[in-house]
Design brief:
CATH architecture of one domain: 3-Layer(aba) Sandwich
Distance between the termini: 50 Å
Largest sheet: 4 strands, parallel
Helix content: 55-70%
Shape: elongated
Number of helices: 27
Structural class: mainly alpha
Number of strands: 4
Strand content: 5-15%
Length: 475
């Protein structure tokens, strides 16, 4: 079956036959067929495009370019423009076909030749960047030499935004620290009507950079780009406040949190904004009275929330309530009172999780209890944490796993937000200490699904309700 773009070229039966031989992978035979077609009808340019393509597919790049250039050189300016468009269509179709076949190196080479024909085809350049990531050859030089930054800056380019955003995600996941990446992202800033799509694209990689990769300053730079599009975007401001604080830019973090509080209209948002202010004050140090006053205001807000007993919270609202009581013991040495409020807040969170994640909750509850099935069975013990790395918990928990009884227990470790950029020796040490090291993104449902699939008998949360992602995953 012919590619839709190929059909649009108006193939004759003979050309269709030759193309089918190409699709079957017999490039030498297909080239012979197109050569015969050229001998029979030398004026039909389409045959030259495919003959050159077949040479390219056989690794004969110079011969391919010569074939195309000779055919193009025989035309008038208007014809050359038309023929170039036709050649570009042929190359585009074959690049897509090779991508579907997952021959990314060949697809990349074809798109490089397409770039020579149409150097200002931004969508082709984005595809080249995506392929470079897949081939693990992407770096700053790839971005700069492609010319895409200058193209995006110099003119209003109509392009597929979903393609643009996927390219951004690919780059930020693979090589966020490359020097030209921020320059590229700045050039990608869309018009105001499309701001939300760009913001939604940048937030998840920024969160990963800040908390999994230890790059809060870079994460803050990404959020600052988003603020150019919408200076009062509440979610961006929340993330930015936390990133500033993690980067030890405490005054910026506190000030941004105060802006969040001013803009917050709902109780969950006000509670979280108060937590961000409190977090900044505590991390900065030396502002005890201000911190105490903020803590008391936050508790008043929490009491109001519990009194309203909201059972229709959004997922992100419920998750964020987990950490808001983190500083209770710092301000009040009363275990009973602290635990009472904590239990009430956790019950509210649980109620909301059972509503918005009802299908997952039902699935996970159907697992039978297998712990007492056999005394001879090795129990599966799962340790869940984002601290299996250079972190205080990471250092303290080493001997717990090092000296586990391997005859009685099969050990699973769930690495939440596994660090992929750079090298963390402690993280690698933990991965070698367990039978099953699960390197997972900070996504609650994915974590819960893996735990359920592993049929864990005993699950231990080493983060001790200090991270909303781990809490949500085992609830």
């Amino acid at each position: 079956m012919l590619d839709m773009n190929t059909e649009a070229l108006g193939f004759s039966p003979q050309q269709q036959q030759a193309y089918q031989v190409l699709v079957q992978g017999n490039y030498a035979e297909a080239a012979n067929l197109f050569e015969r077609l050229i001998e029979a009808e030398p004026e039909v340019r389409l045959n030259y495009w495919y003959l050159g393509l077949l040479m390219l597919l056989q690794g004969q790049e110079v011969e391919a370019q010569t074939t195309w250039m000779l055919a193009l050189s025989e035309g008038e300016p208007e014809q050359i423009e038309q023929w170039s468009t036709e050649l570009a269509t042929v190359l585009q179709a074959e690049a897509k076909r090779q991508e579907q076949l997952e021959d990314y190196a060949l697809a990349w080479m074809i798109r490089q030749h397409l770039r020579e024909v149409h150097p200002e085809d931004v969508e082709n350049l984005l595809k080249i960047l995506q392929l470079s990531v897949k081939l693990e050859t992407f770096d700053s030089e790839t971005l700069v030499s492609s010319g895409i930054i200058d193209l995006l800056r110099s003119q209003q380019v109509e392009l597929d935004l979903s393609l643009l955003y996927q390219t951004i995600v690919d780059i930020l996941n693979y090589a966020p620290l490359e020097s030209a990446v921020l320059e590229f992202l700045e050039a990608c800033l869309p018009p105001a009507p499309y701001a939300q799509g760009f913001i939604d694209t940048l937030i998840p990689p920024a969160v990963k950079l800040a908390y999994s990769e230890g790059q809060p300053e870079l994460a803050a730079r990404l959020m600052e780009l988003c603020l150019r599009l919408d200076p009062q975007h509440l979610e961006v401001l929340k993330q930015l406040s936390a990133f500033y604080q993690s980067a030890h830019q405490f005054e910026k973090g506190i000030e941004t949190a105060r802006i969040c509080h001013t803009l917050s209209k709902t109780l969950p948002d006000q509670i979280y904004a108060s937590y961000l202010i409190l977090r900044g004050l505590m991390l900065a140090g030396g502002r005890w009275e201000e911190a105490l006053s903020t803590f008391q205001q936050q508790e008043d807000l929490l009491r109001s929330l519990l009194q309203e007993n909201l059972t229709s919270l959004e997922q992100i609202e419920a998750r964020r309530l987990d950490g808001t009581l983190f500083f209770q013991p710092y301000f009040r040495d009363n275990l009973i009172q602290n635990r009472s409020m904590q239990n009430q807040v956790m019950q509210l969170i649980q109620t909301n999780i059972e509503r918005y994640a009802a299908s997952h909750v039902e699935q996970f509850r159907q697992r039978p209890d297998k712990i007492a099935a056999s005394k001879s069975k090795r129990l599966k013990v799962g340790y869940l944490s984002h601290c299996f790395r250079t972190h205080s918990v990471g250092w303290l928990a080493r001997w717990l796993l090092k000296h586990h009884n391997r005859e009685q227990f099969a050990i699973h470790a769930y690495f939440i937000g596994y660090k992929s950029q750079g090298f963390d020796p402690l993280q690698e040490w933990y991965a070698k200490q367990v039978e099953h090291a699960h390197k997972l993104p900070a996504e609650s449902f994915a974590i819960a699904q893996q735990i359920h699939q592993d049929e864990i008998d005993i699950l231990i949360d080493l983060d001790s309700i200090t991270l909303d992602t781990t809490c949500e995953s085992w609830r």
